[in-house]
Amino acid sequence: MSTQELQQLREKITALDSELLSLLAQRQQFTNSVAETKIRNHIPVRDHTREEQLLIRLIKKGQEYGLDPHYVTQIFHVIIEDSVLNQQALLADRANPGSSLPLNRVAFLGDRGSYSYLATQKYFSRRPGELMEIGCKSFSEIIKKVETNEADYAVLPIENTSSGSINEVYDQLQHTSLSVIGELTHPIKHAMLVGADTELSHIRTLYAHPQVFAQCSHFLAELGNVEVKPCDSTSAAMITVNELASKSVAAIGSEAGGALYGLTAIKSNLANQKENHSRFIVVARNAVKVPLQVPAKTALVMSTVQKPGALVEALLVLKNNNINMTKLESRPITGNPWEEMFYIDVEGNVQDGPMQQALEELQATTRYFKVLGCYPSEEISPTKVAAVNALAD
Ligand SMILES: C=C(O[C@@H]1C=C(C(=O)O)C=C[C@H]1O)C(=O)O
């Protein structure tokens, strides 16, 4: 093939890709209009039957074009997830008139390039208003910014699939009057990031956040003769490596973040667990109302009385009201040795009957009890198409 032919083919691909984008944007407009009709007619956002029918039709159509059913399914799962999240954001916005701001001042850990920065960008990209980023050095500083009205929202990492709960954030929640108003999960893809002309074998010092070192411990053990230096955040590690401009240093962080500082990835997938995701919560001074058409989660915190079976009793309240618990975490109570504060996430909306019943009962059975917030669930489970494997054969 001549270079001219290659050039022509690439031009055709470029044109098709632009067309694909324009079609995706049109689809997004239609699905947003669907959300408007759902608001007017009180219809739930999610419709698994519609999704299944749509996927089956597309898989069949794709096969006529010679496209693999799994490939088609994967692409449309991403498209549908995006459309559901956009619709949920729209419904949540309408349910809280006057709450959307022309400027969202958002406090997060680190600077441009940190995972919290990427999560902040992602969450607010679906919401109206401009974004003002307020990078902070600690979780307590982040919380304080919102409490003192220097920021409107805080984005805080709360748990990670490989290193578990982020205790410091739970401890901050114990003392704040802020409410949880949202959540999101973001893939954490650790890469070794370096400046120009750096080779893996020449690296002597690695900069990263301590959580990141914990998540990449297997890789670091194999790496051997390299000094690890903890930083306040992933972005601080990137800034340090950029400033040092030495061929013997590297940072660990996301490729997208590193690119903001002119760093490139020389090794990817460094985390112990390949499926590495962080869950973030979004907090604000005022609680939000979640429309009943959107799946909701509620975050609770409580301490039980000191008697045998007190925690079981509290959990039975959830069971008896048919409420599913998605997370249970315990943290020591500062100043009260050997006493624990329990953080519980449940599926459900505080406006729902069974949930209100459960909250009332919990209030009565516990020593301390507080609703930290009710927020739209952003866990969008992909609709399974039973026929996909059969169709693939
Ligand atoms: C767009 C809709 O909302 C959701 C998103 C869908 C999509 O992106 O195709 C399909 C069904 C719903 O779960 C709809 O109900 O039609």
UniProtKB/TrEMBL annotation:
Pathway: Metabolic intermediate biosynthesis; prephenate biosynthesis; prephenate from chorismate: step 1/1; Amino-acid biosynthesis; L-phenylalanine biosynthesis; phenylpyruvate from prephenate: step 1/1
Positions of the Chorismate mutase domain: 1-91
Span of domain Prephenate dehydratase: 105-285
Main location, first listed in the record: cytoplasm
Reactions that this protein is recorded to catalyse: prephenate + H(+) = 3-phenylpyruvate + CO2 + H2O; chorismate = prephenate
Cell compartments where the protein resides: Cytoplasm
Gene3D superfamilies referenced in this protein's UniProt entry, alphabetically: 3.30.70.260, Chorismate mutase, Periplasmic binding protein-like II
ACT domain span: 299-376
EC number: 4.2.1.51, 5.4.99.5
InterPro entries linked to this entry: ACT-like_dom_sf, ACT_dom, Chor_mutase/pphenate_deHydtase, Chorismate_II_sf, CM_dom_sf, CM_II_prokaryot, CM_P_1, Preph_deHydtase
Protein keywords: Amino-acid biosynthesis, Aromatic amino acid biosynthesis, Cytoplasm, Isomerase, Lyase, Multifunctional enzyme, Phenylalanine biosynthesis
Function: Catalyzes the Claisen rearrangement of chorismate to prephenate and the decarboxylation/dehydration of prephenate to phenylpyruvate.
Protein name: Bifunctional chorismate mutase/prephenate dehydratase
Organism: Aliiglaciecola litoralis
